[in-house]
Amino acid sequence: MIFLKSEEEIERIRSASHVVVEVLNRLKEEVKPGVSTWELDKIAEEVALSKGAKPAFKGYRDYPASVCFAINNEVVHGIPSKKKVLKEGDIVSLDFGAYFDGFYSDSAITIPLGKVSPLAEKLLHVTRNSLYKGIDKAYPSNRLFDISQAIQDHVEQEGFSVVKAFVGHGIGRNLHEDPQVPNFVPENGNWGKGIRLKPGMVIAIEPMVNVGRPDIRILSDGWTAVTVDGTLSAHFEHTVAITENGPVILTEEGRE
Ligand code: CO
To answer: How far is the CA of 30 from the centre of ligand 1 (A)?
Structure first.
């Protein structure tokens, strides 16, 4: 069931989003060669708690930390560790959710450490652009898979592939709500172009893009998703409200 949000509820998701943006901006400053993902996780938790918010992922299905990391060939959901130390040339995705005043917000960015390969650079651009192309379709009167299609088309035109094992989601009083937001047009079933988008829907759009094949596997820690073929992967996510006037990005970073 899809819960439509009132303007007041959207403002509360905006408040949670401010915390998310603040945490991601702080992590961006802290990401450098030599830092461990464990250290970054501690900083994120501290910043969120200092704003009166709670890290949304901690304890969610027993996830043990505040941030999900994904380095290079990792796709999503990497658990922070003192042993995972970032180095020059890595790309790392930082995925953070906050719970504040009864509502959730969720966002992810992938950033380069210093100089990365041209291929990595292209992957970051394409993945980020695919997110914005998806957001550009988040108008009432459009349909859900218009978003999916825009993401998939862009990624595949650039020669990369979208991950199908994970999808975006509605968000609000729960971290994950209906509808699911795939980054591809589902091939089976009679869903057509998907449900019609309505003002008051709030969704987390989160393309995960692999350089090579779309397939992923989960490591023995039960969480970390990696590309089966070992190629690089990137992930960007925004929490977006659909209004009469179109999409409003609630987790907009404000600065780069
Ligand atoms: Co999400």
So the answer is: 22
